[in-house]
Amino acid sequence: MVGLLTLESKLCESLIRQRLKTCWIGKTLKVVDECVSTNDIARIMAEDGAPHGLVVIAESQTAGRGRLGRPWFSPKGGIWLSILTRPPKWFHFLDSLPLVGALAIAKPLAEQWNIDAKVRWPNDVVVGRRKIGGVLVEAKARGNELDFAILGLGINANVETSKIGAISRTATSVLSILGKEVKREDLIPAILFEMERNFESLGGSADVDLEGLLTNLDGSRGSRVKVRTSGAELEGVVDSYEGLSRIRILTWDGITPVETNAVLSVDYQVD
Ligand code: BTN
Fold first, then answer.
1. Each residue of 234-254: pLDDT tens digit?
2. Which CATH number is 13-217's, of 3.40.630.30, 3.30.930.10, 3.40.50.620, 3.40.50.150?
3. 152 ligand 1 Cβ < 6 A
4. Residue stretches of the chain with pLDDT short of 70
5. Residue whose CA is closest, atom 16 of ligand 1?
6. Cβ–ligand 1 contact at 101 (below 6 Å)
7. Across-strand partners of 251?
8. pLDDT for residue 166
9. Distance between CA 115 and CA 190 in Å, rounded?
């Protein structure tokens, strides 16, 4: 039974370490059985001086959270992890990090697991219209300077979405799509490898064409969406991106650009 299998396949930390091909992400790695949120552990460790690139992974979270304070269902079998980043040069790109993180999830799912995964602004990974993963960026300032940023990545890997109830209409999982479990010890290193290259490319020291990748993996364009910002409520169709942190929405009044950091809520139409 699939439900029992998810409980049996516990994450193997040493396999993850062996398969990591990164230079700095995950060199300090902490795997825990259960926690409230991996972002909280990463923040506490960051305040204690943990290094840039720290990765915290949990088998399950008791109160995982998504963007805008929404709860994030995080049972055993999923991939729930946080990455700590410190270099100030990336902080100029803070508003791009949700999409850049989503690209690092969607690319290996598409290329190595043959799943039709796409990125949906501002931070979703979707298959069709159903969400399979998401990214939560939380940053801490010291005075006027940013001290660190934490990227929380959630992927519904070996999770049975039929059992999720309220979100089963809008969510999916690798298990549901492939009909079998994914080896998380392969998927996690693949995602962290892409994440590192994406980060380096933002800073100019690697050459991933992030905007090109976004064009290839985009799942937002043409979707009907309702967006609320502090100044406006828009309803329309996603038209195109402007860079990695701004989107253009086509409404009855024409094209309106929206900055990712101004967004209070985003709701895509579900069939
Ligand atoms: C979203 O789509 O709203 C973002 C979801 C982010 C979930 C991940 S799971 C690991 C990390 N810990 C959390 O509490 N949230 C993020």
1. 999 999 999 999 999 999 999
2. 3.30.930.10
3. yes
4. 1-8, 163-168, 271
5. 152
6. no
7. 254
8. 56
9. 14
